[in-house]
Specification:
single chain, 404 residues, mainly alpha, Proton glutamate symport protein, 16 helices
Length: 404
């Protein structure tokens, strides 16, 4: 099997195991090679993140604003509210569970070693970003809103092409190099002796997030059942084929035909379903939001950093926007979110590396939660919009061809 055909999750698992094993016997000079690479890669990420934000947010606002139509606005609003609920629900749950389930002793060990430079790189290179993250966000909103007010579409086409460039960089450069970055990170942790305690702690965090995913789906379908008058548990059961398919493919887009069929079984009008399901496969990432928020809170807890509710609320609102604009490539959601994770929560390079590793490790479960929740949104949109034919001009929102 060609390396490019190996799933990203498999590559990450191989990178983690290899980093742990190699850390037991490799010489320091070998480890310094990967420490140098990680430093360069981290600087490149810092440089590209504002461009990712501008390249994704600007055309997304332009697409949602121009001739959107009532059904698109309604679906996007419900998807955003679902994402916000997921973020705040995760915050409340993790604040309640983390102090009881995560080891304080191991947390203190993490804090003691997290900021130490275990292995020095051969050299370092600083790549200053063209703007900071908040400047990129504000600029994206200004240009995006301006595009919706223009009569022509020249500027929108420019940013659509720019989005293609950014997506290509993520798909062809960042994602392929991530396993090497993760290998170097776990190699350094293995040499420092902290890797086993970190793995044990994060196994608990992954279990917590998985359970919260199930609870989130129950809540989504109870709300949908209350609004539509349908049995929520029967509706959720009808969506299980979509959940299983997404779990196996790790792709929202590849699961669209199955999700459509499941939604129609839930008595959603086929016209509504054929519009809502593909759209939500792109913009509704409640499961991904839960993973990002939950893992971020765990890493903050491990690091002894306290984030107040107001600060984290701002992070969730921004994260919801980034999830709508996230590119449809493996790991695209976490790559789109890195900028606001750094700017809002103050994550260091090592914390970001762990965040990426955790996210990709359970990527399939997040995708499965995303697409199953799409069925609940389809039920709500059907109830509110009735059986009116969707505005076909709204299909300008592109359907991504890979998972989020």
């Amino acid at each position: 099997m060609k390396y490019s055909k190996i799933p990203l999750l498999v590559k990450v698992v191989i990178a983690i195991i290899s980093g742990i094993l190699f850390g037991q016997f490799v010489p320091v000079w070998f480890a310094r090679i990967f420490t140098t690479f990680n430093g360069l890669f981290g600087n490149f990420l810092s440089f590209i993140i504002p461009l990712i934000i501008a390249g994704l947010i600007t055309p997304a606002i332009g697409e949602l604003g121009k001739g959107a139509g009532r059904l698109l606005v309604l679906t996007a609003a419900i998807a955003y509210l679902s994402t916000l609920f997921s973020g705040f629900f995760t915050y409340a749950s993790c604040q309640l569970l983390n102090p009881h389930l995560l080891s304080t002793a191991t947390m203190n060990q993490w804090v003691a070693t997290a900021d130490e430079v275990i292995i020095a790189p051969f050299f370092s290179l600083t790549i200053p970003p063209v703007m900071d993250v908040m400047s990129a966000l504000v600029l994206s909103f200004c240009i995006g809103i301006g595009i919706t007010m223009l009569k022509g579409d020249t500027l929108q086409k420019v940013f659509l092409d720019f989005r293609e460039v950014i997506t290509l960089i993520i798909r062809a450069v960042i994602i392929p190099l991530l396993p090497i970055y993760i290998f170097g990170m776990f190699l350094a942790m293995s040499i420092s002796g902290q890797v086993y305690s970190v793995i044990l702690l994060f196994a608990k965090v992954i279990l917590i997030i998985f359970i919260l995913h199930i609870v989130l789906l129950l809540i989504q379908f109870v709300i949908a059942g209350f609004i539509t008058g349908h049995n929520p548990f029967r509706a959720l059961r009808n969506m299980l084929p979509a959940y299983a398919t997404a779990l196996g493919t790790a792709s929202s887009a590849a699961t669209i035909p199955v999700t459509l069929d499941c939604s129609i079984k839930n008595k959603v009008d086929p016209n509504i379903a054929s519009f809502t399901i593909p759209l939500c496969a792109t913009i509704h990432l409640a499961g991904s939001t839960m993973k990002i928020a939950g893992f971020a809170l765990a890493i903050l807890y491990f690091s002894g950093i306290t984030i107040d509710f107001v600060t984290f609320s701002g992070f969730i609102f921004l994260l919801g926007i980034m999830m709508i604009a996230a590119p449809g490539v493996p790991g695209g959601a976490i790559m789109a979110a890195i900028g606001i994770i750094q700017s809002s929560l103050g994550f260091t390079e090592q914390m970001i590396g762990l965040m990426i590793t955790l996210y990709i490790a359970v990527d399939s479960f997040g995708t499965a939660c995303n697409v199953t929740g799409d069925g609940a949104i389809a039920m709500i949109v059907h109830k509110i919009a009735g059986k009116r034919q969707p505005n076909t001009s709204a299909n300008m929102v592109s359907i991504q061809s890979a998972d989020q």
